[in-house]
Amino acid sequence: MYDRIKGFRDFYPEEMQARRWVTDRLESVAGRYGFREIGTPALEQTQMYVDKSGEEIVEELYSFEDKGGRDVALTPELTPTVARMVVAKQQELSKPIKWYSTRPFWRYEQVQQGRFREFYQTNVDVFGSSEPDADAEVLAVAADMLTELGLTGDDFDFRVSHRDILSGLLDSFDADVDVREAVRAVDKRAKVDREEYFELLTAAGLSVDQAEEFDEMLQVDTDELDTLAEWSGSEQVGDAVENLEAVLSAAEDFGAREYCTVSLTTARGLDYYTGVVFECFDSTGEVSRSVFGGGRYDDLIEGFGGQPTPAVGFAPGHATLGLLCQRAGVWPEEALSTDYYVLQVGDTRSVAARIVGDLRSRGHVVETDVADRSFGAQMGYADSINAETVIIVGEQDLENDEVTVKDMESGDQTTAPVDDVPGDRERPTFDDFA
Amino acid sequence: MYDRIKGFRDFYPEEMQARRWVTDRLESVAGRYGFREIGTPALEQTQMYVDKSGEEIVEELYSFEDKGGRDVALTPELTPTVARMVVAKQQELSKPIKWYSTRPFWRYEQVQQGRFREFYQTNVDVFGSSEPDADAEVLAVAADMLTELGLTGDDFDFRVSHRDILSGLLDSFDADVDVREAVRAVDKRAKVDREEYFELLTAAGLSVDQAEEFDEMLQVDTDELDTLAEWSGSEQVGDAVENLEAVLSAAEDFGAREYCTVSLTTARGLDYYTGVVFECFDSTGEVSRSVFGGGRYDDLIEGFGGQPTPAVGFAPGHATLGLLCQRAGVWPEEALSTDYYVLQVGDTRSVAARIVGDLRSRGHVVETDVADRSFGAQMGYADSINAETVIIVGEQDLENDEVTVKDMESGDQTTAPVDDVPGDRERPTFDDFA
User: Residue A254's domain spans which residues?
Assistant: First the structure.
């Protein structure tokens, strides 16, 4: 007997059906917004990730040398691949480019609740628009995905921030600040204690007083964002506030404003974000981590050798999203569903097969016996797959040109003329023959 | 600019849409037969493949040592994983177990037409029935998948054989035959010249005369299969012929017999098959390789440490299947489709967003401007995504409470009251307002 590899999962049909339901809903919403599905490789050059994220990324990659001597890595995220694809066909692709895809990614990480070494994400990105409407469309498709799953505004909250507000505020201090380190400190604000947070900020170059003033600024109310530009005297902050407000205004038109809270202490850990960033949280706090996040990354395509191309996107991870759905009671029941089981008693295969074929041609899920089992074994199996209706094709009934139609929930059954099953009915049930 | 890894592919939206159409159809048929989707890991222990296929398999694996010191491999096929999953929950799973899944696999192979290092398959398997009906159900679901794609009996042919006929015939010779090697020789019969084929058979232990007699036996007509048992004097051959005929008889009831030709020279290369095997071929021969194949493998689960569990399955590879579909002219057009583009002229976003939302809530694919573009640029974009209908929301029209509805194929356009778009129409078009 072989073991599964740690951090990797098998999905048996019941759980898989629930996962598929979620994936289908996410993709259906993306499709209605005009995002188009793409397909991407599982392996890329390791160098691509090193260039984007630094040497330290290798520690969490499944990387190796392939038989052709290439340094390759199992893709830990989609963004670099998508950037590569945009650059490869930049001239021919009409803009904006709107793409989505669902697939697994791999990171050698500590396994914990909602975090695996093989994990699934649906990535959604827009390339080629720097307008606030593109940011707002991303917020709107994210919100519609969650409401499509049955979640409401009581369940989740998008905490929206802007990288240029953070960096503009940091630059406005009379200090030699490592903005990247300071932004990382902000990203850790809710995850570490206050002392450690301030240590990180001072390590990034702020004095203790400046760190306190900076942190105070981050907690400004939404309707007082305008004061930040004046407070800091930074034009960059003023522009960023204006951009953030324009995004929220477009989100209002797109029906997503109600899910958004301005939260400047939301920073996103990744270095490549350049404008609006957001994270989705469980409103109850029961799912303690960020469910997913996204934002604007206008410099990446150019960094990958392409023409300057603004971009904004997000990627719900299915594990944390599943935790949120479960917490909110909208995770679908993990149970098989089957429309019909056609039960054979004696040598009735050809008649049973005719009925099975007719029902399948109407799109129904239909099983029949392929294991030469007894009546009882077949009925037990039909029960185990939650068959709604069992059609019993027995030798004796057939002598009278009849079959038996049984409703599995009530247990009621009745006979029906064999030639009349299914007849011209789209979805015959016990009631049609009783 | 980064390069894609050799043998790996990017799928842009047009091609991906065609691929998704094919995948959806394959999975829809599997679902109607009551096969249930499972989800499986991309990495497994390398040892699992070595035990099943021998040390030489490592040559074509993407295998490496992970950061925890595990010898792991990117999965080159699904069967060992599925066997592991069956063994892990053998007691609780109700039988027969009917599973399907679509996903990529990886082999370090020579790249050629229809063969890549990352390739996609839909695997379909039944565990827990040794009855001919299970083999026939596999043939039937395979045939229904192909006809669902628009292929007909003129396009493809299932060549059906039986491993026990081959091995029974081989055992009946007065010679020390390496059955495994001889079966591999048969599998190569159509791929090598006659001389090499006979060399392989004699290397496996047959004399030249015996090899010729054996090859003559393989070409027996379907209605003369019964003569083989007598000819060889082998009870195993007699039983296998009976089993093959029972499978074909069940396939007749299931509507798949018409696609099947008995072809004892079809052997399947893999060692683990134990009963009926089949390969799907392009009837015209234009796709020269086997499109896909499958068969019975009753010993694998026990070999993986489980209870003896008969099994039968198949796995269409999407690359060769695509070649067949293209040859037969049923490969879907690789073009985007879009129901509506809502074009904004001037500051009309809130009205446009209302119309967009109404149309999306009806399930349509709807795009609107998120890049603040000119009328011409938006119209060009709408054309590039093959929008069927463009709804123009212009400032001037709105002063009269009107929008313009344009049919993109004819170029016809008309105005419509803004409050009446979409109104209570499920799918409003130009004709509704003209």
Answer: 13-40+75-328
